[in-house]
Amino acid sequence: MTHRRALLQIHFAAVLFGLTGVFGELIQAGAAAITLGRALFAVMALVFFARVQRRPLLDPLAPAQLFVLVIAGLLLSGHWVTFFISVKEGGIAIATLGFASFPAFITLIEGLVFRERVRMAEWIVLAMVTAGLVLVTPSFDLADQGTIGLAWGLLSGLSFALLAVTNRRAAAGMDPIRVACYQNVVVVLALLPAAAVQLPAMAAVDWLWLALLGVFCTGLSHYLFVSSLTRLNARTAGLVIALEPVYAVAFAWVLFNQQPSLRMLAGGLLIIAAIVWSGLRKSH
């Protein structure tokens, strides 16, 4: 693994992350069914990548570790379901920018729930994300479909923030590919009763999109991200992954003609700047 190869890998991972909303738009199924199918293919891909790197997946877990993985898997289920609802309601750009609010939610959770000291710089990040979301919001009317989509995107960002805090505090030190695999198994088990009946009715092309979403945008992207961190520092990784909303908006524009307004672009730039600055500070 050279430094150049690591950079290529993490850029490709960011592109794959940005494609998630595209597949959510293409698949003609409900959000729960998309999430279930994604998790099924992701488990298969992660098992394959774990075998390639000879990472153990079936070693026994302590009850506390298993409990944490179950909670995190349920949060991951909520994150994906709300994200795909946001895509269906408001479009790819709004869903991705709504999800990108998660650094602000992490600041609030750590400050209000865990009573950690929140520094002035973190409040500035929160203010930047809030201002960006105000610009992104199509209108302050709950009858507007774009506003509803953004609200679901914010729920997706909140659930991801809770997942990030859970993994940081309770899953630290565990193999990240193993953590991802177990959490995806929990997603499958959680959504199987509600969404399994929808899968047989899906068209063959939707199964193709699901396979690409699960294998490439989940399994492969996670593998590339983890592998690249063997040569890259956290600052570089954070800067590249912050490009995910940029890729998502570009894909939506080119593939579906979902052209963002100047106001939405300005809000997106504020949110991305906040993510980059937050990542730079955390890496130090």
TrEMBL record:
Tell me which Pfam families the record gives: EamA
Q: Where are the transmembrane segments?
A: 34-52, 64-85, 91-113, 120-140, 146-167, 179-201, 207-225, 237-256, 262-280
Q: Keywords of this protein's UniProt record, alphabetized?
A: Membrane, Transmembrane, Transmembrane helix
GO CC field: membrane
Domain EamA per the UniProt entry, residue ranges: 7-136, 148-277
Q: Is Transmembrane set as a keyword in this record?
A: yes
What's the protein called, per UniProt?
A: EamA family transporter
The answer to whether keyword Transmembrane helix applies is: yes
